[in-house]
Amino acid sequence: MKMPFPVLDSDKAAEEFVASADLADYDFSDMVPVRFELRRKDKSVSLRLPESLLDAVRARAEQAGMPTQRFMRLAIERALQEPPHRS
After folding, report:
1. Segment 67-80, tens digit of pLDDT
2. InterPro entries in the record, alphabetically (predicted)?
3. First vs last Cα of the chain: how many Å apart?
4. Distance CA 57, CA 50 (A)
5. Which of 27, 37, 42, 43 has CA 20 to 30 A from 8's CA?
6. Closest-CA residue to 45 (of 23, 13, 69)
7. Which tens digits make up the pLDDT trace of 19-77?
């Protein structure tokens, strides 16, 4: 049986753990992918939304554990990755 992954509270603790542990011994099934945003955001957009829609977006962003603007940007990126819908 694999061991649970330990909680690491600092970069130093993570570096020490990775340097000394055999990662094959650990269970990574509870891990979630993390997306780092490295590209600079150089444009700003103002968008008017109905309050109910903004409230729903804020709630979903909170459920996802991310800031509202990042959640909205990711939703737009995902929508653009899908094939266009024909009417």
Report:
1. 999 999 999 989 99
2. CopG_antitoxin (IPR022148), Ribbon_hlx_hlx (IPR010985)
3. 52
4. 11
5. 37
6. 69
7. 998 888 888 888 887 777 777 888 899 999 999 999 999 999 999 989 999 999 999 98
Which 8-state DSSP code applies to residue 29?
Answer: T
Q: Number of C-alpha atoms within 13 angstroms, CB side, residue 34?
A: 5
- Whole-number Cα distances in Å, 6 to 14, 15, 49, 81: 9, 13, 42, 35
Pick the closest to residue 76 from 57, 62, 59 (CA basis): 57
* pTM of the complete model beyond 0.70: no
* Cα separation values, 2 from 10, 16, 18, 86, Å: 23, 20, 16, 48
